[in-house]
Amino acid sequence: MKNYFDLTGNVAIVTGCSTGLGVQMAKALASCGATIVAVARRQNLLDEVCADITKEYNVPAIGLRCDITDTANIEEVVDTILEKFGRIDILINNAGTGAVAPAQDITDEQFENEFNIDLFGSFKFARSVAKKAMIPAKYGRIINISSMYGLVGNKIAPAAPYHAAKGGVVNLTRALAAEWGQYNITVNAICPGYFYTPLTEETLRSDFFVAHAKANIPVERYGNEGELDTAAIFLSSPASSYVTGVALPVDGGYTAM
């Protein structure tokens, strides 16, 4: 039987890979045989994540500290990966932040910070990986993590800079897909809804948010651990070669209503 999702020999970078969804997606790719390069700002957490991945999945995993707003730091990290492994097949741009406040109270600094991390940081990493590794190899899979809030507005947690930046990620994805398709590089976006993570669990299990899920999400609940993994595996696979420029909501149907 053909294994459509075998990633053995592929080298995958996952940014924002010290906690939460980034770690879950890295483990998903590792379960398919990929070598993992975990990138984030906290080296101690990266070391723990990589030790867990290597132990559980028996694949190489290294953690490299990187500030994705720092172009020189990104270039250094990409060079280090190429020196060690000689290739980069997959990039998941997962690192992000979120400023929550009424739009009329958002500061210039909050807006700029959101764009520097969520949008500009994703572009910088994609640019470096494409230029140095994927275009020369004529192969690549880039997955940008946007949000369902990159597709719609919301009233429950006002976050105009986040919406704007994640919406930018969606159209950046389309632009890069259009430019880099000639090099056999696919560029897609995943738009997650609310997921339980250590940072969100207490809030999402409150009576208010449970009621919100039942009223606004067709499956009437929030996302559980592992329910984002299959989208990441699919878009990372060599078999998804004719899928590019897509913004894929994984949101229990939230954006269908």
UniProtKB/TrEMBL annotation:
SUPFAM superfamilies: NAD(P)-binding Rossmann-fold domains (SSF51735). It comes from the Bacteria. Signal peptide: none annotated. Keywords: Oxidoreductase. GO terms for biological process: bile acid metabolic process; fatty acid biosynthetic process. Pfam families: adh_short_C2 (PF13561). GO terms for molecular function: oxidoreductase activity, acting on the CH-OH group of donors, NAD or NADP as acceptor; quinone binding. The keyword NAD does not apply. Belongs to the short-chain dehydrogenases/reductases (SDR) family. PANTHER family: 3-OXOACYL-[ACYL-CARRIER-PROTEIN] REDUCTASE, SHORT-CHAIN DEHYDROGENASES/REDUCTASES FAMILY MEMBER. This is Gluconate 5-dehydrogenase. The lineage of its organism: Bacteria, Bacillati, Bacillota, Clostridia, Eubacteriales.
